[in-house]
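New here. Your pick:
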Amino acid sequence: MTDTQTVQQTAAVVYNPIKVDLDALRTTVEAAANDAGWGATRWYETSEEDPGEGMTRQALDEGADVVLAAGGDGTVRAVAQGLRDSGVPLALLPSGTGNLLARNLNLTLGNLEDSVATAFEGTNREIDLGIVEVRRPDNTRDRLVFLVMAGIGLDAQMIENTDSELKRKVGWLAYVDAIRKSLRGDNNVRLRFQLDGAPARNLRVHTLMIGNCGSLPANILLLPEAAVDDGLFDIVALRPQGLFGWVQIWVKIVWENGVLRRSTVGRKLLTGLSREVRALSYLKGKEIILRPEHPTIFELDGDTFGEATAIKAFVDPLALTVKIPQAEADRLPAAERTEIGATAAEQAELPPEKSSIPPAEAAPEVPIGTPVGEPAGA
């Protein structure tokens, strides 16, 4: 090879064949790669046994300079797990009903050409990853990543009870039926939690969610202070007592977070109107250990992953690089500009989210149990 010759960059596409129109995708990607002067694109099909992590690692071994994830949130999560700390950027080709990360990064939804163009012509943005170490009922352990949120309780039960075929046909409306099924019986989860090494505490919740981002589909802003690159989790515990508690949560999340916080006038109104809602508690931290009283189903980015007897979640700061449109290159990092558009200065004027659990619910200072640590031989 002469000094004047350069190695062509190459892209890899990890795709879920059920979620994409492969012919249209190939045509669009190949045209964009040719226009950008890149080499031949490599294609990797996911399977039921491997939703994308193994294919992503193969793509890295074969020299991919960018990996395009074409599929739903499960595909994106698996590809991100394969790309963790590699420095090779992830490009999102949103598909499916959730598109959680794309929504939180304000990326284009439903325009394949724009999404593919961003993969080849966009700029890089580093974001945090959430890592969970899980102990199973049989004492085996897993390590998984999440991009948006992890949860236990009613949230995970709802996802577990969702009819996948109904979801494919009607999208997020399928969760209405799942909520009805999940609300039967006692939905409280009793657990002990430890945040950033503080003493272990007892908690009874309907749902506990650990957020790297703040927004969910249907314009639900669950965690208004969450930033995708601030090195912190935003955590929310839902603890309603009866119907009135659920009404309080609805007002807080849908009205205050979903409406008022999205405008300058609304944020000013919140300064005088917002008040503590006991049914909703917010926390922040870099690491949280959960030990439920009984084995509990947990979810990551909208998919359930079985039961856990202990979960340790921690932030891996700026561990994933994501392609965003070149036009967004000058946008402030999320740590300085919240996902709802308010600058840090504007956000500081708002009343802070309540970030404490009542002292009466504190547990004695006893170990939370054997920490979920590195697998043997890791």
The first helix runs from residue 22 to 36. DSSP finds eleven helices and 18 strands in the chain.
